[in-house]
Inverse folding.
């Protein structure tokens, strides 16, 4: 991601985001430790990357580590590295993430979940940018910028003695606060556009088109999962409504937990995805059978009226019938049937074993 792309992604209309962007622009050129606070899914890592990419360290590495995701016993060696023989199975010196991030930025996400003993060792790094590997006594100096983030209220953790007060004041040099998406819904149209552009850049060719009614519906919805949830909804829309223009009704089905997507729509979307995957698979002389429009309408109508439909069982039965038909039409020749179905011979044999299909019984 380039500096221009970062600035485009940061250009959101809400007052809170304009303030956050201004803070990012001010602090990025310095070496100051940055502390980002905001709810999960609000874009804390993206802001950290923006601080890095807009700094003089942009050519250096950006290393992100989730302090709550790494087991307590491994976090120290992950961050600081270890010397040969430091513990059982340690057969060589191992470089930690701090050294890997030298010349760049180390992003410590969810620092509020960092174990208490590790907080003491991190304090030394923040004070003089020095540390020792696990099992080693040599002091190593490192040129690295530290950016921290958490969704937790560290001041409360300090009062509960779950987070060191001296470390709290050491990382809280330059705070940047990100607000929940529900508190800045004017950002949603721009965010949705950026998410769709990102999907297209990643090769996701069937992105949906959002009508003004769809955008308005997105702004009316609740977003407890913040930007991450919005991204998931748009990605799901691209699967279920590929290339279509979405209105308010489709958005309500995608967002609301009380209004599930119709099984007919979901099944037809799956059928289209399977057909597209088959079209992109290159086997010898494949023959593809695609459902007609009338078949699709009939299937969708029957699904809407059924309370006991099981898509997995239906697809299995359909697959069995295709295999039986192909074997019958090719006089039980597995190789010929595989070519007709667009499969490799070994794949067809495995499917016949899975469904207990015998050529003698055809």
């Amino acid at each position: 991601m380039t500096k221009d792309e970062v600035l485009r992604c940061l250009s959101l209309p809400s007052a809170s985001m304009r303030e956050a962007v201004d803070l990012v622009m001010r602090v990025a050129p310095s070496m100051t430790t940055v502390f980002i606070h905001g709810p999960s899914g609000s874009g804390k890592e993206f802001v950290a990357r923006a601080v890095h990419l807009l700094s003089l360290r942009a050519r250096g590495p950006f290393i992100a580590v989730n302090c709550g995701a790494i087991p307590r016993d491994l976090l120290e060696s992950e961050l600081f590295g270890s010397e040969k023989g430091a513990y059982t199975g340690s057969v060589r010196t191992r470089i930690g993430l701090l050294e890997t991030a030298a010349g760049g930025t180390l992003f410590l996400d969810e620092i509020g979940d960092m174990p208490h003993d590790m907080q003491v060792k991190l304090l030394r790094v923040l004070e003089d940018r020095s540390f020792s590997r696990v099992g080693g006594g040599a002091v190593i100096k490192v040129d690295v910028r530290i950016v921290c983030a958490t969704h937790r209220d560290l001041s409360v953790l300090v009062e509960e003695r779950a987070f060191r007060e001296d470390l709290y004041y050491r990382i809280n040099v330059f705070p940047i606060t990100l607000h929940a998406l529900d508190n800045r819904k004017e950002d949603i149209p721009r965010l949705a556009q950026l998410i769709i552009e990102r999907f297209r850049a990643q090769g996701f060719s069937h992105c949906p088109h959002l009508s003004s009614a769809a955008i308005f519906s997105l702004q009316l919805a609740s977003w407890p999962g913040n930007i991450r949830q919005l991204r998931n909804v748009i990605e799901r829309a691209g699967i279920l409504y590929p290339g279509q223009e979405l209105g308010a009704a489709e958005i309500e089905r995608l967002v609301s937990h009380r209004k599930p997507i119709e099984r007919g729509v979901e099944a037809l979307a799956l059928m289209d995805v399977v057909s597209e995957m088959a079209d992109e698979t290159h086997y010898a002389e494949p023959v593809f059978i695609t459902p007609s429009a009338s078949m699709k309408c009939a299937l969708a109508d029957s699904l809407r009226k059924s309370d006991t439909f099981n898509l997995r069982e239906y697809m299995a039965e359909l697959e069995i019938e295709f295999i039986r038909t192909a074997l019958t039409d090719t006089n039980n020749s597995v190789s010929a049937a595989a070519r007709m179905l667009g499969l490799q011979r070994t794949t067809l044999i495995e499917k016949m074993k899975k469904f207990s299909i015998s050529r003698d019984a055809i």
Q: What stands out?
A: Residues 271 and 291 are 9 Å apart (CA to CA).
